[in-house]
Write a sequence for this structure.
């Protein structure tokens, strides 16, 4: 298995532009999670899906953030419009049923908003 | 709500010395506990996990951790540090009373290894 695949690895955009981050989870994993990592706030859970359905989006910072999972093999995290304070590394992770096996993380997308 | 506390944002050891990274959890029911490692510009890699089996857990790269319910701790150790161990280490908790098994991370500890 190729693991959790995120794209792009790096994204530099101007303030006000729309940004879309992509994630392909491990095949067979029922849960998908989006995390944001910053120096100030550490690793924050933004939203997670179970069987493609959003379960808890309480970590999404603002309405500018939205996430979708149209099928079991693809998810997007969109920021519109982007702001400099959105600059961070965004990680996607997936896991199977139960919590025993932990999560498998992607390599992350480093977003810079200028 | 469950949480983990990692004592020390930075730990510095000499190569060959003992590594001890501290983690305490807060949960009314014994949860699952994990240690992840993050190398620069990379994602998080699972080092080891406690899932209510043996309390002493061995992981990759010579690391191990012991679950101590009485102390609500899950400290990470390695007998002899190697230069390649320099990275950031995260303790995480899931399960317990939270049936969603959301993974909640500590703030991380950056391990520096001196030659």
């Amino acid at each position: 298995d190729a693991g959790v695949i995120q794209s792009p690895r790096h994204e530099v955009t101007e303030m006000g532009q729309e940004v879309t981050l992509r994630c392909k989870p491990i095949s067979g994993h029922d849960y998908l999670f989006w995390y944001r990592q910053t120096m100030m706030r550490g690793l924050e859970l933004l939203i997670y899906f179970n069987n493609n359905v959003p379960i808890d989006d309480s970590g999404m910072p603002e309405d500018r953030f939205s996430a979708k999972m149209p099928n079991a093999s693809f998810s997007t995290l969109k920021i519109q419009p982007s702001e400099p304070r959105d600059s961070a590394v965004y990680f996607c992770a997936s896991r199977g049923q139960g919590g025993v096996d932990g999560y498998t993380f992607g390599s992350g997308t480093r977003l810079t908003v200028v | 709500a469950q949480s983990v506390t990692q004592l020390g944002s930075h730990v510095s050891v000499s190569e060959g010395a003992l590594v001890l990274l501290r983690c305490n959890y807060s949960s009314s029911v014994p949860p699952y506990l994990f240690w992840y490692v993050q190398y620069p510009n990379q994602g998080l890699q699972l080092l080891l996990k406690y899932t209510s089996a043996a309390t002493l857990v061995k992981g990759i790269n010579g690391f191990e951790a012991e679950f101590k319910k009485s102390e609500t701790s899950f400290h990470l150790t390695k007998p002899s540090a190697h230069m390649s161990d320099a990275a950031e280490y995260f303790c995480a908790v899931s399960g317990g009373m939270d049936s969603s098994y959301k993974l909640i991370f500590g703030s991380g500890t950056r391990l520096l290894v001196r030659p």
